[in-house]
Amino acid sequence: MKKIALTGIKPTGILHIGNYFGAIKPALELAKEYDARYFIADYHALNTVKDPDELRDNIRRVAAGWLAAGLNPKETIFYRQSSVPETFELTTILMAFTAKGLMNRAHAYKAAVQDNLDKQNDPDAGINMGLYTYPVLMAADILLFDSHIVPVGRDQTQHVEMAHDIAQAVNFNYKAELLRLPEASIQEQVAVVPGLDGRKMSKSYGNTIPLFAPEKELRKLVMRIVTNSQAVEEPKDPEASQIYLLYKLFASPEERQTLAVRYRAGGMGWGAAKEELFRVMNRELTPLRERFDAIMADIPALDALLAEGAEKARDIAGATVARLRKAIGID
Ligand code: TRP
What we know:
Elements: E1 4-9, H1 17-30, E2 35-40, H2 42-45, H3 52-68, E3 77-80, H4 86-95, H5 100-104, H6 107-118, H7 129-132, H8 134-143, E4 149-152, H9 157-174, E5 183-186, H10 215-223, H11 242-250, H12 253-265, H13 270-296, H14 299-328
Parallel strand pairs: 1-2, 2-3, 4-5
Helix pairs in contact: 3-13, 4-8, 4-14, 8-9, 10-13, 11-13
This protein binds tryptophan (TRP).
């Protein structure tokens, strides 16, 4: 029997190249070895996305994005969190085992409070209960599916540890292994993905390159990458150039070698380096973009695919909740 890997994808924005190398590719790699359960965490997104059209669109785009990038829904159970109501029943059960103090210590909540204090606002300003209890909902997502490992970025490891602790509290109370204790599997950034301004590519910096940008837009964005004022004839250090760091992610070893030599020799300007980057990027992203556009052109088919995933998910989730209800005496 394969072990179970589960992760949630919060549909709060459009996917970019940083997501592709930092989260999507490693998770798809993991799905080859594990029994994978990947889902769209739409109720987590509700905490911040309050516009219905935007949320609806984000959910479809993120789901289509993962499919276009290679998620195989025949092998990986792929579903929307909102389609698995057992999640919310388990959340209620877990609430009774979650110390309020544990939630007070959650980094995301603490950062929001600190931000208010820094601005001399009321410490609770703009903080909803969804943000405060975010780790409990996430624990339910994880524990519902008997997950062994949870591939996440560093910022989410504390949440997985909390899920572990909450599960332990339940098991301890009933003196039974009712819930499997999950472990985070940290997705070390395989490589740093620099953004347009040279800082780490991130939505919060506004320096991203969308994964499915049309070819023309992709080219425009590549041409906008910030460079220094070195002249064409000057020799350049490839490793100090974000153009080259991005290039490395898309190019073959031979191509990498060749471009590094051209950098060091001098005589190549930033414009030429960008052209070369655009070429390899567009080569890899064109088939993804075409699959993405095809999936987005048939939303009913996408919704049906997600509904199929939800059905499989609910079989597992229903069994977990039944087991819990029996153990707690609400059966
Ligand atoms: N909180 C995660 C994020 O912001 C998304 C998420 C929701 C998740 N539920 C999860 C991740 C369960 C792993 C497991 O990225």
